Amino acid sequence: MLDDVSRGDRINLEKELLVGIVFNPELSDIIWELEAFSFTEETRDVFSTLRKMKDEKTPIDLDSVKNSLEENTSLMPSYYAFLEEDRFSTRRNMGWADAQSYARYIRESATILRLPFGVVRERFPRFAKGYPEKALLVGFAYNLKGEKSIRNQPGTEGVFTETKTSDFFFKNHKIIFETIRELVLKTGESNIIAILNKLDEKSAAENNFKPEDYSFLTSPQFESCRSLSFNAARTCLEELRAISSLRILSYESEKIIDKACDAGAQVVELIAYADKTLRELERGENLVFGTLGTAQSAVHSIMKRIETNSFKGSAFYCIPTGFSALDDKIAGLYPGLTVLAGRPQMGASEFALNLAYMLSREKNVLYFSTLDTKDMFTLRLLSTVSRVPMRQLLGAGSDFQISENRKAQLKEAARNLRHHQLVIDALNREDITVKLENLIVKAKYAFKTPPEIIIVDDIMHIDVSKNYEMVYRRPSSMLEKEIVTYEMQSKYERGTFEGKSYIENREEKRLNTVAHSLYVVAQSLGIPVIIVTGCSGDAELRSSGVPRLNNILGTLSTELANTTILFHRPQYYTADSKERKKEESEPVNLIIARNKKGPAPVRVKLAYHQECFRFEDFSEK
Questions:
Q1: How many CB atoms lie within 10 A of CB 234?
Q2: Which residues, 6+ apart, have CB-to-CB distance to 449 below 8 Å?
């Protein structure tokens, strides 16, 4: 039976067919018998590439296929590495008859795996009788304080405070819950007699609400629910939240489909609307009491994970930066926001480039460059990896011709980078602005598998539209910190806050919106997001030029960050420019001003090679 085959087995069958086509050109005609939607997401792009090559009459072989796949910057090499894996080597000599069998299976099974849109609606009938809703309401009416609980178990009050009217599907259940809530707010307790009297009054006043709509409150069928415990009530509410989310998703999906059919539909706005809906659902499903637990159980759980070394993949798992001196202080990168900040020429942007190179050896890294084009970024990256000065790559200075030794270094660097999992999104020559909404859409939805690390260099050149500012709204508590008492040109805007007039710092507001948006992305994807920002000129008023936490532009970024690192080059302010040129490298202080995993503030010294933008662990030798 086709539906007896697991998804993993199906993916392997698809890979076997694709390997056969790539290594045996005689099988390429089988491509005409298949469509891209027949393949699973893990292999669809490889098939689409083969289909495109077939349409363009391009010869199909391993090298040409790999070259075509490498042109797709959204694909990691790991997606098509199976073409050369030994476990599929036996399929390289696949015959025509076998290929037809594979193609027939893929066509026939595609309809089974593609779920119709109505599958969500099909899940609703099991709640037609509304049993979880009725059980919860009976528990609220009879056992809010826990008087009827056995063995002194808590009542349903803790669940009641977390329940909302929108959690209920049936209109009569909404009315009953509102009635119970009104009485609890008025008297501080739940009394079944008072509830029934109030419901009788509403039944007499409303034609669509009848006594049989709330008769279950006294029905023997629900007598066991009158002593509903906290845990049982929590289970009922979690069930209601789950089905409520499915219902809302169904409705919102239909809205999005209708909007997408409009002639003036904007893709980015639709995705932003969908993203907002998903985040609201996520907040609604998170029950506060679900985090309660004893210290003993929490310690036992942590110790078990320590003993089995099972922190990998969790929020506790830290990714080493590749710089041992820094990892000793911050324990690496972990899900959340990391801020790199400094004045111009201090090395914050260059350090982000080094991190991208180091981290992409083992992790999928998505790098947003808001200052450089892709070509310029690639030149900087090659300079860093090869140690060839940037001025030589650009043909400047006295070394206009690159020596053979330098060329060998560049070739070795290029070979090295082929094995790195780094995706670059840089400036477009036609559009030199970077919009926040486009950045977030790419980060969250451009890849089948979300990136494991995101780096944004830097946030000071990101534009924020009014629509997206509403989707990724900053906490209201930040409004006071964006209020200033003076006005300077057009970067400040007048407004009102708590009935008082104020002048708003537009630049601070924009940076806070960007920082909060990227923080939301980090939390929703569960990955580290590294952002580069600047420091105000106040830092240079000090003779040493050492920046402080309050010099960082974008106040919210420092409050949300797991780690905040300030960059300072002492020799930039003290040494003579001629002396600096004589030295191959110079020390750079990384000031860890905020650190949730260790002490702060502390300094870490790294060696910085300015001509090739390379950072290394500093050695006193």
A1: 19
A2: 76, 364
Q: Which pLDDT band holds residue 471 (cuts at 50, 70, 90)? A: very low
Nearest Cα neighbor of 422 from 477, 378, 360 is 360
249 token code pair: 């998703």
> Which CATH number describes the domain made up of 324-463+517-617?
3.40.50.300
Write out 379-444 in H/E/C secondary structure.
Answer: HHHHHHHHCCCHHHHCCCCCCCCCCHHHHHHHHHHHHHHCCCCEEEEEECCCCCCEEHHHHHHHHH
Is 397:460 a contact under the CB 8 Å cutoff? no
Is 2-114's fold the same as 131-247's?
Answer: yes
**Domain limits of the chain?**
2-114, 131-247, 324-463+517-617
Whether the CA torsion 588, 594, 597, 603 is positive or negative: it is positive
Q: How many Cα atoms sit within 13 Å of 30 on the Cβ side? A: 28
Q: In this structure, what DSSP letter does residue 262 have?
A: S
For the entire predicted model, the pTM comes to 0.60
**HEC profile for 126-148?**
HHCCCHHHHHHHHHHHHCCCCCC
Task: Classify domain 2-114 by CATH number.
Answer: 1.10.860.10
Burial of 148 (0-12, 13-18, 19+ CB in 10 A): middle
Q: 457 forms bridges with which residues in the sheet?
A: 369, 532
Quick one: DSSP state of residue 362? Answer: T
Judged against a pLDDT cut of 60, whether residue 56 lies above it is answered with yes
